[in-house]
TrEMBL record:
Name of encoding gene: rny
GO molecular function: hydrolase activity; RNA binding; RNA endonuclease activity
Membrane-topology descriptor: Single-pass membrane protein
GO biological process: mRNA catabolic process
Compartmental location: Cell membrane
Catalytic class of the enzyme: hydrolase
Residues annotated as domain HD: 336-427
Residue spans crossing the bilayer: 6-24
Gene3D superfamilies the UniProt entry points to: Hypothetical protein af1432, K Homology domain, type 1
Record's protein name: Ribonuclease Y
Keywords recorded for this protein, A-Z: Cell membrane, Coiled coil, Endonuclease, Hydrolase, Membrane, Nuclease, RNA-binding, Transmembrane, Transmembrane helix
């Protein structure tokens, strides 16, 4: 196409010189005349046309175009030759690869053909062996039938029975192995859950002793606490029911009492008296009475804090007040407030792991020992707790868990979890002191022995049970009867109770007369 365009341009340039002749000529000549005329005109005009600047310029451009066209044609020819060479090389390479592939296919075909022949021969040998085995089996079967005098069906039945027996034994063996495996895995899983529950729910301190300490800012305060002729300390011990030890620890007063509520009241009252500085019988009586009234508020806060930490809400105020008594109640030396919190945390963790009802377990763990602080009635703490909770319409599932938490049989998984959590909290190392409960019971029995006598107003067991202080009503017991009352109490203790060493019984009769000046 480019060569045609170049030729076309050249023709246009050559025809440009004929323009003048075409314009000058007006007559229409014949063809012959036209031919001659053109020839003559060209001859005549040739020198003039060649000298024309446009013609010269057109010829120069035509030469340039022709040179450029030749150069372009050479480039095109060179590229075409290079492409032809590459195509030829690629064709040769493809042919070489095709030959290699064909050789590989031929070799694979020969290999497969050889294997097919080998398999055919093996198959033929196996068929012959199969025929031989069948013939041998048939002959042996005929021989066995002759020897055993059994038909084929009878032998088959006997064989199946034997097989069933073997399978039953194997089945039993497998079942036993699986049971052992499952039991082992379940024990390991249970141990893991219990260890994690114990780690999750354990608290730092769950044991307290029967003594408390009150720091004194000045050693001279001990004399003021004792008072003239010991009347201040005697009044304090009579009102609170505790034993004050001022000599064992310098700078401290040791408050001793097995009843934690009495000890707490005495400790708080003594701290107030020390801070107030006015230590006299009237002020002591006022402070002790005020502290005893505030104890209810302290216990309510303790119960409310327990419910809040565990996440138990919508609990009646009376139940919260009763739970607050756990703050000053101990079981085998284990503080019940801490024990309840620990039991609830362990129970909730186990319930979550086993997919049990978490809310039921949580509430049951909180109230499972509530009967231990209900001392106004006789009965086990389980019975008292169930009876008490039924008054507040606690869900039956929760009450059932509490009723069964010391049993061996459980009606639900939640009951088993509550019993397990209680046992883990109480039985783990360091949680309880086994002798503490019997110690408290012995001191309580001593006080009950005195309170069962007529005319006795108060009775306090002090000095670890080696001394029993009895306060009588002066209007019912006179000075002459106090000695007889002391002997009767001592005799009752000797006959009904077991105790180490001796118990000193002190009967105190005090008369107060007060008048008001107007």
């Amino acid at each position: 196409m480019e060569l045609i365009e170049i030729a076309f341009v050249g023709v246009i340039v050559l025809l440009g010189g004929l323009g003048a002749y075409v314009i000058v000529s007006r007559k229409k000549p014949t063809s012959k005349e036209k031919s001659n005329s053109v020839s003559n005109s060209l001859n005549e005009l040739n020198p003039a046309v060649e000298k024309d600047s446009q013609v010269i310029e057109a010829k120069a451009k035509a030469r340039e175009i022709i040179v450029e066209a030749k150069s372009l044609a050479l480039n095109i020819q060179s590229k075409a030759q290079e492409q032809a060479r590459q195509i030829k090389e690629e064709a040769i390479e493809s042919e070489r690869k095709a030959n290699i592939l064909k050789a590989q296919v031929d070799a694979r075909a020969k290999e497969l053909e050889s294997k097919a022949k080998s398999l055919a021969s093996i198959k033929e040998v196996l068929e012959k062996k199969q025929d031989e085995i069948e013939n041998f089996h048939r002959k042996k079967q005929e021989e066995l039938e002759k020897i055993s005098m059994l038909s084929k069906e009878e032998a088959k039945e006997l064989l199946l029975k034997s097989l069933d027996k073997d399978l039953a034994e194997e089945k039993g063996k497998r079942i036993k192995e699986k049971e052992e495996e499952i039991r082992k895995e379940s024990h390991e899983m249970a141990k893991q859950i219990l260890m994690e529950a114990l780690e999750f729910g354990s608290t730092d301190i769950v044991i307290e002793h029967s003594t408390s300490k009150v720091k004194l800012p000045d050693e001279e305060l001990k004399g003021r606490i004792i008072g003239k002729e010991g009347r201040n300390i005697r009044t304090f011990e009579e009102l609170t029911g505790v034993d004050l030890d001022l000599d064992s620890s310098p700078g401290d007063i040791i408050v001793s009492c097995f009843d934690s509520v009495r000890r707490a009241v005495a400790t708080a009252a003594l701290e107030r008296l020390v801070a107030d500085g006015r230590i006299q019988p009237a002020r002591i009586e006022e402070i002790v009475e005020q502290t005893q009234k505030e104890m209810d508020n302290i216990m309510y806060k303790a119960g409310d804090s327990l419910c809040h930490k565990i996440g138990l809400y919508n609990v009646s105020k009376e139940l919260i007040q009763t739970l607050g008594r756990f703050k000053y109640r101990f079981s085998y030396g284990q503080n019940m407030l801490e024990h309840t919190m620990e039991t609830a945390r362990i129970g909730v963790y186990i319930a979550e792991e086993l997919g049990a009802d978490v809310d039921t377990v949580k509430m049951a763990c909180v109230f499972h020992d509530i009967g231990k602080v209900l001392t106004d009635k006789d009965g086990s703490h389980v019975e008292l707790g169930v009876e008490y909770l039924n008054k507040f319409k606690v869900p039956s599932e929760v009450v059932k868990c509490i009723a069964e938490h010391h049993d061996d049989k459980f009606s639900s998984i939640e009951s088993a979890i509550v019993a397990l959590a209680d046992h883990v909290s109480g039985a783990r190392p360091g949680s309880r002191g086994e002798d503490y409960e019997s110690y408290i019971k012995r001191l309580k029995d001593l006080e009950d022995a005195a309170l069962s006598q007529d005319g006795v107003e108060k009775a306090y067991a002090v000095s670890a049970g080696r001394e029993l202080r009895v306060f009588v009503k002066p209007e019912k017991v006179d000075d002459y009867s106090t000695a007889l009352l002391a002997k009767e109490i001592a005799r009752k203790i000797e006959l009904e109770q077991n105790y180490p060493g001796v118990v000193k019984v002190i009967v105190i009769r005090e008369t107060r007369v007060s008048e008001t000046a107007k």
